[in-house]
Every structure is written in structure tokens, then in C-alpha cells.
Amino acid sequence: MNQILQQMPVLGVTIIGGIMGLIFVWYFSRKVLSANPGNEQMQTIASLIRKGAIAFLTREYKTILYFMIVMFIVIFFGIAKKTAIAFLVGAGCSMLAGIIGMNISTLSSSRTAEKCKLSFNEALSIAFPGGAVMGLSVVSLGLLGLGIVYLAFIWYLVSTGSDLTKAVYEATSMIVGFSMGASSIALFARVGGGIYTKAADVGADLVGKIEEGIPEDDPRNPAVIADNVGDMVGDCAGMGADLYESYVGAIVSGLVIAIFNLNDPKSAMLCLLLSVVGIIASIIGVFFVRTKSDQDPQVVLNKGLIASVVFYILFSLIVILGWYKNINAFWSVMSGLIAGMLVGFVAQYYTSGNAVKSIAEQAKTGAATIFIEGTATSMLSTVLPLIAIAIASIIAYKLQGVFGIALSAIGMLALTGTTVAIDAYGPIADNAAGISEMAHMGEEVRRRAERLDAVGNTTAAVGKGFAIGSAALTALALFSAYAETVGLGSTGLNILDAKVIAGMFIGCIMPFFLISKTLQAVGRAAYSIAEEVRRQFREIPGLLEGKALPDSAKCVDITTQAALKKMILPGLSAVIVPLLIGILLGKEALGGFLAGSLITGVPLAIYLANAGAAWDNAKKYIEEGNLGGKGSDAHKASVVCDTVGDPFKDTSGPSLNILLKLMSVVSLVFGSALIYLHEQIANLLPFLR
Amino acid sequence: MNQILQQMPVLGVTIIGGIMGLIFVWYFSRKVLSANPGNEQMQTIASLIRKGAIAFLTREYKTILYFMIVMFIVIFFGIAKKTAIAFLVGAGCSMLAGIIGMNISTLSSSRTAEKCKLSFNEALSIAFPGGAVMGLSVVSLGLLGLGIVYLAFIWYLVSTGSDLTKAVYEATSMIVGFSMGASSIALFARVGGGIYTKAADVGADLVGKIEEGIPEDDPRNPAVIADNVGDMVGDCAGMGADLYESYVGAIVSGLVIAIFNLNDPKSAMLCLLLSVVGIIASIIGVFFVRTKSDQDPQVVLNKGLIASVVFYILFSLIVILGWYKNINAFWSVMSGLIAGMLVGFVAQYYTSGNAVKSIAEQAKTGAATIFIEGTATSMLSTVLPLIAIAIASIIAYKLQGVFGIALSAIGMLALTGTTVAIDAYGPIADNAAGISEMAHMGEEVRRRAERLDAVGNTTAAVGKGFAIGSAALTALALFSAYAETVGLGSTGLNILDAKVIAGMFIGCIMPFFLISKTLQAVGRAAYSIAEEVRRQFREIPGLLEGKALPDSAKCVDITTQAALKKMILPGLSAVIVPLLIGILLGKEALGGFLAGSLITGVPLAIYLANAGAAWDNAKKYIEEGNLGGKGSDAHKASVVCDTVGDPFKDTSGPSLNILLKLMSVVSLVFGSALIYLHEQIANLLPFLR
């Protein structure tokens, strides 16, 4: 009791950490907004993109709202009132982070384009802080929301007569709702945003580049605004929601395991403290992305990342040695951090340099051979990351048991602020390049904007590695937390039990199902956009000659509707299938189900991400003038593979990350209810026992 | 003791069953050989293909021999002398089945082509018995070898003073070597044969069809003989070795589980008896493929399959009710038989009809969209088969525990004789079509031969389903047998243990690794064949005009060398990696490793098989005149996807089936040695404990 009381100040520190992050969100927003937004034409284009993005986000949130209401009612009456409240706040904070980040990102792009007139590094000084707003919103709101809800629950329980120890246990069991809220938003945002971005991209290219032969981002193409909106809603908002969810999930699984497995509130507080120092390290990192006009921009971005890593190692060492006083925790954190970086660097290796060159070489014999070689390379690229994840989980487990795995996930996600900043900077640069083209700002400006974009791509590969690695460890930690709370921790989960095996066989198809549905959604949505673009070229006189304006709002609308419609089935199935398995086959089968989906999902996510990136880069390699350069047969073949790779890397792959975590957290939240329902069903239908 | 003695006659019945099968092998061979082999030109072409195929097989077996010798020595001195002998006999019977089947198949093709002059059904009356020789060789030699070795071991042990009970236990623990011998040959044959067939096919098409625009099987193409050889060594010999292995593996896992888990020799004998009646049902099935000249050939083949199924159900019911006297065993067998057929029918559904039509429709927007749609459809096609497998394993387990799973696998494989016959009939028809083209036998003959081929393809889809489904259940049964023999049966294999999780994470990359290596092998070998074909067109004067003969032996030689070189790494890694995991991380991690590879391998195998078949059929659909027909842009796009799908369905996919079983059986054979070695290593390096 007294020992618990000593830990409570950490919750205060957590809340302060969150507020501090928000102060920097405000600071960087001011910095961006104070810059010149460019001439009227630029502002018009930017505002079209902005309107499209915000319209999509609003409609997406509205669509999700129905789901949220149903889930809220189910949790409120079926599980616990406070869990339902935590669910709402968790989802709300995710939405809020999305709105803030998207707002600033869409305002950054025309300002970045304007700065491109001056110099490359001036442009970076707007684009990067613009991305940092999204990065810091995600971590600050995540931590702030979690801290406030956790503290409020404990305070409320104590004030209504519960003793402190009991209050902490109860609050911890309810805080899982927060993580489920985060996961729900993330899945819909990733799937919806991912379908949007690639459907618009493929749809625009199919008619624009391939049929009419007009360049990328040409203002005559009716789908070009939708394409730019897609960058924002997919790579910026979707990705933010994704990492918000990983971040929250890792912390929540740490809290649950610390309290229910270790019975140690101090360990729970360590999870929060480590996240606070992560925010500080991320903020410091942003300031290291400084611009001296003569420096290689890649070096500048790397400096930011490295500074964050170094400061994080330092701070976490101080916290662990000075306060937690168990050096094992430090090594658990490090195992995750290092594994995450390794996953990233391996991804970079297989999607650049010689690996890409030998994929591009195959273009000599056509698209089929590029495809075969790219598939072979990216399947091989799953080997080292999974070994790294396996080693990290063994080390963490040996040092601190299941809690070590949670710490490892927290370590991998400590720098979420920085990685999201680097990721969100990408679409800003991409949009800036689009605006410079559409507003006819000249070759030099466009070139600078494209260079800005290219730098981001390379660094983002490392970020994507973190996203996948952390998803694996977070899902594993959530899975362990699930096992702990349904009582499998003591009995174990025996693979040799037919129910567990059957669960695994069914679990392993979930990733395939999600990939199938998201790919199909992109394909079909792209098809309807291409139809619309063709119609406009046919029916709007003078459009191809540049004498009339396209109806881009129509394309935005079609894409929005298609993406929202197609996100529902995959989103719902991720929630409903684990519940069904739990109810029909019981907690052991559900455990097997989660393990099965994790084991197939992680390598598939790596494969999809790296295949997409490798084909993209092979195409770029050819466009640089190799193997015949732009317009050659080799180039055409590489465009085919890039078109396939786009939804692989930006829709299906990232959706998998969330699927794994969402299914684990749903099982965690509904664990005891599922056990009860399974008992009832098994009483009626004894063969299900 | 006395109870065991009562069971011994079953071993005699097993041996008689095997001999009976061989008698029909001889009978069908006579039937084929008595037919007219055609004119001199046809015989020359057929003998070129035959020489190439036998040369490949001989060199393949020689290459495998080094591996066999090393493994023999390791097992002889490291495990047990008798296990090593069983290993040799198991491998030898597989090779013998391959040689017999390949001999007759290559002799059947020109005879089938000759009969095509008369009528379609006359041709079927040669082609199908030709395939049945392979089918019956596989099951007869498998059962005969197993029966003789098992009986010999027991007899030897008893005659050297052991009591009968002990002798049966010892012999059972050694018979696993037989299964490992089967698996070793199968992996190399499948991988080597698979690389050969697709490298030759793709290499021939790249230059012939795409660059020079000459038709399939044109005698001017230097790689066309290699392509026809490939059909034989891949689809006939490779596939035979694959199903031989599944067949033997299922029986052996049943023996091990019956003896070590149930302590019941009668159950062990049931596994053998069920296989004997399977042979009888298969033979009856062959006789049902009767030819009335006015009948739909598809109906004729289906009649054979259905007759086998019906007679098998009848016979197994008689055996189980009349002798084993436990009806649960019958339902276990049925669960496997039905699941296998379901997997097959689902495959047929997703690779024909409307599914293929909507993939082909995407050709309007190019290869990329066909690719996306095909990937989506074939990933979706994994859902129902895995649910069927999950349900079959739950039912079998509920009825009879782990032994039920083995019986389920045996049920699925009972009709191996029939399914191999249908499969092996494919390359005979394919070769007959090739010979009719090369020997200029006219449009009508070619058309009949192609129709023969097409009928086989549809029925073969069901056979492929059996191969994958049975691989899953056999691997599961072997995995259970492994767990039983290393003592995990009592303690369980806990997924929540970090070692098991780490093992699973590493296991799940094995299928990706194998796919990667086999795809790359096909791509690179095809590339060097294409180079050679180009060289010959360039350097042999008059070749393109049909005035000079190509040097087809050179192409056969290049393909053989490439395929044999590239099969070594994937083949060895399937043996070495599980041993390394067991030695370094222990039996729990190895258990997790096997489970992880099984869980990812099965859906990937289904995905690859169905994607390849769907693209193939989408191309054929367009070639039938839809969407612009042959030569249109849509057709070109579909050819790209078909080229990718070929190694998916004929090299990587089938190799996966064997990988899963081989790794399980290696773990089973080396189980106790691995435990000992792990102890030694862990004494030196305690952190591995």
C-alpha cells in the first residue's frame, strides 16, 4: 500500500511529459504557420488537397463512429463501464492526434514549396517541423490520455472507498480499453487511408501516365488532387494512427504484465517513465535536424535520428539505474531498440543498392522476371528480421520473463515521436513537389522538392522497420497479457492440444484474408477512379489541351466513398473473428489463433513492405537512366511491378501490423467474457468443449 | 505378447498388398508397351525426351547419393544401424518407383500421340494406364518396402534373443528412418525437378514465344525438348516422389503414435491394413477409367476417382468394423478423406469459372491489375482449406487423440495411387501434344492431344489439393510423433515459453526462405537457357527457317546442371536448420520451430498453387478468344502473369509440402540425439539453456 503510494507521482510526471510534448506541438505549428504560404494559385491547390483530406478524415471518423458506439455499448454493459470510457478516450486521443497532425501537414506543403524557391535547406526547415507536429501529437496525446485516464480511475476508485492496491489492480484491468480504442481507430485509419492512397495513385497513373502519357502530378489529370490527398490520409494520418496504437499497446501490455504477473507497481511505472524520456529524446532529436546550407540533407535527417537514439539510451540508463535499480530492464529495452533498428537496416539493405540493381536487371526479360526476382529477394528479406525479433524476445524473456518482452516493445517504440516525424515529413515533401508542378513553379523548385522527398524515403525505410518490429513485439506482449489474464499463464498453452493447433490453423489465414481484401479493394477502387478519369477526358472539352479544369472534387469523392466502403469488412472481421473463436472454441483455441496469426503476419508484413519498396526503387533506378531509362521497355516493365508493389507496401502490409495488435487487444479486453460465453455455449453444444 | 503375435499376419498382408500392386504395374506396363510407338520421326523425338529425362534422373540420383552417404553414416553411427538401413531402403524404393514410372511414362507419350490419330478415347486408353504405372509403383513400393523392413527388423530382433514386445517397439523406433529416406529423395526430386521444368518452360517461352514469335512446342526452338523433359521430371517423377513421401510419412507417424502413445500394436497394424485396401481401391479405380467413344472424357476420369473413393470407404468400413472394432477410427479416416477432397474442390473453385473470369477481366488495365486480383483471389482461397484442415484435426483428435490425426492423414492419402495416376497422366498427354506438333502430325491429332491434356489439368487440381492437405496432416502427425518421442507429450509444448516463441519466429521463415531460393533458381536458370537459345538462333544458320536442326541436347544439359546445382542449398537447409535449432536451443524450441513452419507453410503452399493455376487458366480463358483473344494486349498481360505463376505452382509451392514433412521427420529421427547434444552444448554455453 505504502509502496504503491510512492509510485503515484510517476503518473503526474507522465501527464507533465504529455503536456510538454503538446507545448512543442504548438511551438512547431507556430513555426510552420508563420512561413509564407505562397501565391494564390499555390494556396488554391493546397486548399483543394486540404479540403479533400479533411473531408475524408471527417467522413472516416463518422463511419468509425457507428462502430465505436456499438463497441462502447458492448463494453459498457458487457465488460465494465470504465473500460468503455477508456476505450472512448483512447480512440478520441487518436482522432485528435490525426486531426492536429493532418491540419499542420496540409498547411506545411505549400509553405515548403514556397521555401523551395529559396533553398533546399530552407524547405527542410518547414517540412521537418511540419512532420514533427504529427510525431509529437501522437506520442504526447497517447501518453497524456493514458496518464489522465489511469490516474482518474485510481483516484475515483480510492475516493469511492476502494483501497489503493485494489484500485490500481482494477484501474489496470480497465486501462486495456484505452489500447483497444487506439487499435480500432488505427485499423480503420490504416485500411481506409491505405486503400484511398493507393487507389488514387493507381487510378491516376493507369489513365494519366499509361494511357494518355502525361507526367505525374499533371494538373490536367482529374485524379491528381485525389492522389495528393491520398499521400496525406494514408502516409500521414494512417501511419500516425498506426504508431499511436503500437505505442499505447506496448505501454498498456507492460502495465498489465507488471501488475498481474509481477504484482509490482514500480515496474508498471517504469513503462510510463521510459515513455516520458522517449518523448524528451524525440524532441531533442527534432532540434538536431538543423540546416546548414552546405550539408548533405541525408546526413541532417540521420543526425536527428541518431541524436534521439543516443539521448534515449542515456536517459533510460539514468532512469533504470537511478530509480528502478535493475540493470536487466535496461538490457530488455536495448534488445528491442537494437532489434527494431536491425529490422530497419535490413529493410534498407534489401530495398536499395545491389539488391535493387539485380531486380532491375531482370527488366531486360520483362515484367515477369522482375516480379519473380523481387518476390524472391523480399521473401529472403524476412529471414534476418525474424531472427532479430526471436533473439530479442529470448533475451528479454531470459532477463525479465514476460515483462521483459513488454519492455523490449517499449524500447522499440521509445522513439515513435522521431520515426513518425520522419514518416510524416514524407507526404509533406511529396505534396510540395505536387504543388510545385501543378502551380508551374519551374524545374528548379520541383527538383528541390523531389530531392526532399527522396531523402525522406530512405530514412522512412528504417521507420517502417520499427513499425513492423514493434508490431510483432507489441502483439506478443499483448498476447502474453491476454494469456496472463485468462489464466493460461499457469497452465501454459500447449501446441500439442488439438484445439490450440486448430486455432493456429485458423489464425494463420487472417493475414491472408486481410491482404486479399485490401488488395482487392485497391484494385477495384482504382478501376472506378480510372473510369471516372477517362470519362472526364472524354466529356470535358479542352481538358487534355489544358484549356479546361478537371472536376477533381468528383475523383476525391469517389475515392473517399470506395475507401470507406471497403474498409468495413476487414476492419470488422479483425474484431469479430477472435471473439467468435473465443466463444465457440474457448480460450486455448483463441490463444492458438493469436499465435498463428502473429507467426504468419509478421513475415508477410515484412515481405509486402520490402517487395513494394524494392520494385519502387527498381523503377527509380531505371528512371535514373539505367537499362534504357524512362520510356524504354525495361521501364514499362518496372512500372507494372511498381503498380503491384504500391498496395503491397502502403495498404496491405501496414494493415497487417495493426491486425495483429488489434486481435490481441480485443482478446485481452474480452478475455473473461469470452470464457463465460464459451462455457454457456459448451453447455448447450457439448462437442464444442 | 500373445496379443502382438496375433497382429503379425497383417505384416504379411501388407507385403502381399505391395506385391499385388506391382503385378498391376507390370500389367499396365505391358498394355502400354504393346501399342504402336508411331513412325520413325515420332520415335526419334520421343527418344530424345526419354534420354534427357533419364539422364536428368540419373544425374539427380547421383547428386543425391553424396547426401545419402553422409546421412547414412551419421545415422548409422549416431542413431542406430537399423535406422540407417531403413533410411536407405526408404530412399531406394522412392528412386525405384521414380525409375519405373518415368520409364513407362516416357514410353507412353509417342504411343498416345499415335493413338490420337484414331480417336480421343483410344488415346486415353494408353495415357491413363501409363500414368497408373507411376501411381501404383509409388504406393506398392512404399508399402512393400515398409512391410519388408518392418517385418525383417522384428524377425531379426526376435531371432537375436529379444522378446517380441520389445522387438516391435525397437523396430518401430527404427522404421522412422524409412520415412526420412523417402522425404530426402522427395525434397531433392521436387526441388530439382521443379526448377528443371519451369526453367526450361520459361527459358523456351522467353525467346521462342515472346522474342521470335514461334508457337509452343515448335521443333525449331532448341529448348523445346528440354521443356518436354521438364514435364516428365517435374510433374511425373517429382510429383511421384512427393506423394510417395506423404504416403510413407503418414503410415510411419501412425505406427509410431500407435506403439509409443497408445501402446497398441493392433492400431499400428490398422494403419497398414488401411493402406492395403487403399491400393486395392486405387486399382479398381483405374479399371473404371473406361472408354466409350461417345463419352465426355472428364466424366470418364471422374468416374475413376469416384469409384476409388467409394470402394475405399466401403473397404475401410469393413476393415474397421470387422477387425479393428472401433468405429471412431472410421470417422477419423473420413475426416481426412473429406478434408482432402474439400481442399481440392476449393482449389478447383478458385482456379476456374467466375473466379478466373474476374481475374482475366483485369487484363483490360494490364498485367499489374491481373496480378493484384490474382494475388487477392488466391490468398482468399487459403481460408476454406485451412478451416477444413482445422476441423478435420479437431474431429480426429476428439475421437482418438493424436492417433486420430495420423489416421486422418492416412485417410487423406489412401487414394494416392489414383491421384498420382491422374497427375502422371498429365505430362504424358502434354508430351504427346508436343510430339504431335514436332512430328507435324496435323491439326486434328494435336487438338485431340491437347484436349487430353486439358482434361487432366482440371482433375489434377483436386489431386494437388490432396497433396497439400495431406502434407499438412502428415506433418502434423509427424510433429506429434516427434513430441511424443522426445517426451513433450507429457509436459506439453507451451507457446508462452520464450524458447517456443523464438522457435516459432525462426520456423516461420523457412517457407519464405525456400520460396525465395527456388524462385531465384528458376529465374536464373531460365535466364541462362534463354541466352543459349538466343545463341543458337544467332549462330546456327537456317535454324529459324527450319532448314537446320537445333542442338537440343545442349539445352537439356544446361538445364540439368542448373537445376541440380540450385537444388542443393534449399535441400540441405531443410535438414540442417532443424538440427541446428535442436542442438542450440533444445527440444522445445525445435517443437516451436516445426509448428511455426507448418503454420506458415500450409497457407503459402495453397496460395502459390492456386495463384499459379488461376493465372494459367486466365491466360487460357483469353486464348479461347475472350477479351481480344490471342495476340491482344490483354493476352500479353496474361502471359506475364502466367510466367510468374508457373514457378509458383510447379516449383515453390510443391517444394513447401515436402519441406514441412522433411523437417518433422528429421526431428523425429534425430530427436534423442539432439537432446543429448543440446545438453552438451548447454554445459559449455549455459546461456543457451
Overview of this structure, please?
The structure is a homodimer of 689-residue chains. By secondary structure, chain A is an all-alpha fold. Chain A is 87% helix and 0% strand. The first copy, chain A, is built from 20 helices and no strands. The longest helix of chain A has 52 residues, at 633-684. Chain A is globular, with a radius of gyration of 24 Å. The two termini of chain A are 41 Å apart. In chain A, 67% of the residues are buried. The mean pLDDT of chain A is 90. The interface between A and B is large, with 83 and 82 residues.
Helix share of residues of chain A?
A: over 70%
Radius of gyration of chain A: 24 Å
Total count of helical runs of at least 4 residues of chain A: 20
Helix-strand pattern of chain A, N to C?
HHHHHHHHHHHHHHHHHHHH
Shape of chain A: globular
User: Which band does the percent of strand residues of chain A land in?
Assistant: under 5%
Extract low-pLDDT stretches of chain A.
none
Whole-Å distance between the termini of chain A?
41 Å
Describe the largest sheet of chain A.
Answer: none
Query: Of all protein chain pairs, which has the greatest interface, and how many residues does each chain bring to it?
Result: A-B, 83 and 82 residues
Provide the residue-averaged pLDDT of chain A.
90
Oligomeric state as shown: homodimer
Number of strands of chain A: 0
Q: What structural class results from the helix and strand content of chain A?
A: mainly alpha
Question: How do you describe this structure in short?
Answer:
The structure is a homodimer of 689-residue chains. The first copy, chain A, has 20 helices and no strands.
